[in-house]
Amino acid sequence: MQTILKAEQISKTYGNGKALVHALISCSLAFDKGEFVAIVGKSGCGKSTLLRILGTLDVPDTGSVLLDGEDVLHLPDRRLSEIRRRKIGFIYQDYSLFPEYTAYENIILPLHLDGRREEKDAVMEIMETLGIASCKEKFPSEMSGGEQQRTAIARALILSPSVILADEPTGNLDAENAKEVVCLLNRASRQYRQTILMVTHDRQTADYADRILHMRDGKITSG
């Protein structure tokens, strides 16, 4: 199997003195191409810190992070911005769609930011796969929560990034929509051979992943 993302012995501490918080303690992980992995743990266990570091949005105190074999921790800002734009897709709990853009426009935005034109057939194929073709001309305010999250997933997929990082992607959804969204993530990982790393506190949501890692007090405890 081809390893897409690898972290070795990463640690992160916040604060000082009595307010010292060990968010991550010597965490080592590796993710293969096309793998759908869930990281499960209670609030405050270090899941979000881990995701931010893997997404190059934060820097660990110690350790290394390799994306497609490249150490991303000590690169200049311009190169990091390029990596985030081209190699990392982000899916957030609050969808993070632009309200003034239609679903289609939100999805193609990463392409335009990268100076590329969209292939309309490819965009519509992703929208049809995710069940949101009917939302093409709709604005976020005209869509349900489930439709907005599917649009966010399509936006993350459009550049075929090396890895997609999903931070509690079902947190704002009801049980039915949450199940549909996580099933679509599973389908995307298989259909597009997309590596997806999902952080969640919900074990039922995690069960749809290929592999489950458990976190507690800043450490990977199993998986």
Provide a short characterization of the protein structure.
With about 220 residues, the protein is an alpha/beta fold.
Write the layout of secondary structure elements.
Blueprint: E1 3-14, E2 21-32, E3 36-40, H1 47-54, E4 62-67, E5 70-71, H2 77-87, E6 88-91, H3 103-113, H4 120-129, H5 145-157, E7 163-167, H6 175-191, E8 195-200, H7 203-206, E9 211-216, E10 219-222
Parallel strand pairs: 3-8, 3-9, 6-7, 7-8
Antiparallel strand pairs: 1-2, 1-4, 4-5, 9-10
Helix pairs in contact: 3-5, 5-6
| The CATH homology group name | P-loop containing nucleotide triphosphate hydrolases
In angstroms, what is the radius of gyration?
17 Å
Topology pattern, helix = H, strand = E: EEEHEEHEHHHEHEHEE
CATH fold name = Rossmann fold
> What is the name of the CATH class?
Alpha Beta
Largest sheet: 6 strands, mixed
Query: In percent terms, what proportion of residues is strand?
Result: 25-35%
Termini separation comes to 18 Å
